[in-house]
Amino acid sequence: MTLLLAIVALAGLAWLAVFVLRGSLVAGGMLFVVVAACFGFHFMQFDVGPIPLTLDRLFVLLLGGMYVVQRRMGKTQPKPLDRLDLLIFAFLALVTASTFTHDWHASFNKDVVPLWRLIAGYLVPFAVYWVVRQARLTRSNVLWVHGALALFGLYLAVTGILEITQQWSLVFPRHIADPKLGLHFGRARGPMLHAATFGLCLTIGMLALLVCLPRGGRVAKALMLSTLPLFLASIYFSYTRTVWLGAMMSLFILLWMTLSGPRRVLILASVAAACLLVGLTHWEQLVALKRDSSASETKSSTVMRASFTYVSWQMFLDHPLWGCGFGHFPVAKRDYLADRSTSLPLEAIWHEAHHNVFLSLLTETGIFGMLLFMAILWTWGRGAWRLWYDRSLPDWMRWHGLLMACSLGAYGLSLLFFELTYSPVDNAIVFYLAGITAGLRSLAGHAHRVQLPGLLGLWTAGSQQSAGLTANG
Description:
It contains 17 helices and two strands. Helix 4 (83-100) packs antiparallel against helix 5 and helix 12 (295-318) crosses helix 14 (357-389). 68% of the residues lie in helices and 1% in strands. A two-stranded antiparallel sheet has the order 1-2. It has a domain at 84-119 and 304-465. It starts with a helix and ends with a helix.
């Protein structure tokens, strides 16, 4: 038995070495997204210290090591820094400083410390962003990403339907069927155990399917179209208004960017009118939506968002520039809940995490943190928009710009109604697409390069020289 285990271990190390030396960084980033979504903490964990080891945490270390090794071997495609990178570096520096200048090891909400939110919410997604931004981006691997996202979305769609129909023997991973784990049991929530995260990933998978659609043959198109009802049904079964709104917003952007002339006006006006009609005639049912909790509890959760907004504004007025410290809203807000100048039920949010990333950043990192994050989103959207509308670029670059722009629609709605820094999945999948978009912008000449003095300037010059040597063979 010992000999068998040794053989298996050696074989595993051999394959690991092949993956590190010859594997695609773009594929590695996609695999991390899948592993983080499906095989995270609830799937398996190893207690080896203060922070349990999980497969996704091990994989991100592997991805980082893979990047370092391949960069040393000249197998990456380094790209010069641009203004977007400076925005991201400034934002990460601000959030990191805000974390460590306050009580960063205190446990405030469900045993989640500010340091963990920093790592899971921003540092890990940025690592994925940077790796794929510096990876070799070719037609084949970018199109592979679109296909992989579509297949991942199809898996989520089927899983969501199996959950709603309670076909637990067919659900994988098995932790999805445990009502004691995660949140939103009774809705389609997938392996993430959270309906909003599930819905965001599912929507991006559906968008990737639609992006793949024009490139398929007649049979392939028929097969892809036949799976579209599964996506739409599973999005509905999430019973989460944010997911519904995000899917509608992303599809609206897709129609806007792909249609033109009178047809665009007619179709989009019809869609907008239909959405408005549904909203006006079914407003009470949407507000008091009955799902895994009662309709009254769902309506109460809607009212709580007004309390979050009020408390956030009061906290911002007291700490407008630098905030109360990243990760400190769950406790710092309690000093404001005794306010009797408003009729809002402020005490209802006593044990709740924030429900809006923008307001969360505003209260925890001040006006600078929120504006930097919004500038990053704007730059991502602008870069994706320019990729799509640049007719001189090859189609595979333009299609990725379209996918990124539409994905930002769903992501933006999630940012408005949920705090996305408690797990790496939500930000990682969008940062992954953004890393590819940033790399393509640089290859297309759309990036605004910067000249940096000192060591950073030497590093940038070295990256340009390395990229030139790589391009010349």
